[in-house]
Structure to design on (363 residues):
């Protein structure tokens, strides 16, 4: 009887809320619900109050078909509350983003010290993100053994070699042999074979090369493809101490942790201080000190590696860097970036693999 059925529904209590469910479990549950459909024998015949699916109700409104009381929802038990169809609002609701909070800007004396250091090194401090520099300033003072910026400045003026010490703390170069293995897999399996068809050696430039590990890694791949002897490889960095280490090719045990044993045996030799890159690789390299945004155009390149430099620059400076590098590539050449970097406003670059862009044409 209708009254009895209504009474039974009114005695139901809402089940207690369950703990939050993992998204994967939610997805599985949604798919299982979608697969449940009431059998024809279990379906109730439509009543005047519940128009059949695909027809309009007494009011002629399509919304009546979507009523929770309709046959489409016959297998669902609703609480005894007033239910009525309401218009569907298809306009997405975007909550306003919370206001961005930025760290306090650099004090005048801190900024003047950084600007002075960078100008002495031939760099423009204004293109680097100031919040990153601010976080590294305490480390800079500790490395110089100074308590104030004025004291640190006088110390560097008396001992110019300390300029490299200061820059090493402010402009950190994070690198490694075969860093991000998937990137070097793309280089080995797709980039170098595509370029080897030209029948000549390759021109490779590592921008912000740090101590040279990534460029040495490319040199090993070139040697395995019989391309090293005819190739021209250049590494540049704004820190002279990093370039000196790259030129020496000396590394400790930890630096070779991700180098396969067979590769290490082939391309490194044991020395008193650790490991040294084999001479054929070292002889193939050229190392320069300079700012990537100010270096003159130095050729048409088949491969340019610029990884995790642009993320430390303001967007306009980063865009200028990408345009510069894109223009320095040969047609068909490749630009390799960091995982968090996306070249913008650089015409002619096509993303062909993770962290890998090709100029002007696809594979």
């Amino acid at each position: 009887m209708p009254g009895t059925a209504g009474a039974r529904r009114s005695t139901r209590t809402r089940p207690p809320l369950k703990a939050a469910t993992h998204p994967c479990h939610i997805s599985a549950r949604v798919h299982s619900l979608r697969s449940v459909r009431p059998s024809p024998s279990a379906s109730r015949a439509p009543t005047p109050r519940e128009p059949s699916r695909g027809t309009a109700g007494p009011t002629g409104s399509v919304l009546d078909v979507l009523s929770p009381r309709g046959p489409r929802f016959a297998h669902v038990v609703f609480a005894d509350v007033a239910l009525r169809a309401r218009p569907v609002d298809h306009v997405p609701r975007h909550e306003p983003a919370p206001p961005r909070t930025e760290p306090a800007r650099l004090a005048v004396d801190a900024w003047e010290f950084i600007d002075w250091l960078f100008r002495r090194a031939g760099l423009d401090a204004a293109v680097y993100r100031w919040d990153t520099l601010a976080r590294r300033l305490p480390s800079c003072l500790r490395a110089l053994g100074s308590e104030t910026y004025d004291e640190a400045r006088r110390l560097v003026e008396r001992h110019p070699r300390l300029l490299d010490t200061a820059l090493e703390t402010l402009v950190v170069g994070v690198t490694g042999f075969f860093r991000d293995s998937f990137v070097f897999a793309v280089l080995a399996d797709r980039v170098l074979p595509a370029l080897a068809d030209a029948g000549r050696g390759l021109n490779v430039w590592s921008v912000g090369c740090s101590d040279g590990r990534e460029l040495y890694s490319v040199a090993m791949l070139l040697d395995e493809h019989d391309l090293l002897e005819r190739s021209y490889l250049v590494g540049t960095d704004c820190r002279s101490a990093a370039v000196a280490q790259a030129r020496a090719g000396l590394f400790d045990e930890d630096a070779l942790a991700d180098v396969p044993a067979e590769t290490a045996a082939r391309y490194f030799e044991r020395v008193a201080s650790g490991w040294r890159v084999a001479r054929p690789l070292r002889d193939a390299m050229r190392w320069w000190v300079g700012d990537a945004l100010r270096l003159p155009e130095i050729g048409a390149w088949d491969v340019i590696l610029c990884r995790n430099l642009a993320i430390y620059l303001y967007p306009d400076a980063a865009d200028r860097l990408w345009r510069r590098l894109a223009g320095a590539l040969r047609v068909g050449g490749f630009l390799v970036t960091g995982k968090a970097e996306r070249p913008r406003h650089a015409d002619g670059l096509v993303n062909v693999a993770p962290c890998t862009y090709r100029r002007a044409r696809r594979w």
Observations:
- The first strand starts at residue 203 and ends at 207.
- Strands lie at 203-207, 232-237, 250-251, 268-271, 274-277, 285-289, 301-306, 329-337, 349-353, 356-359.
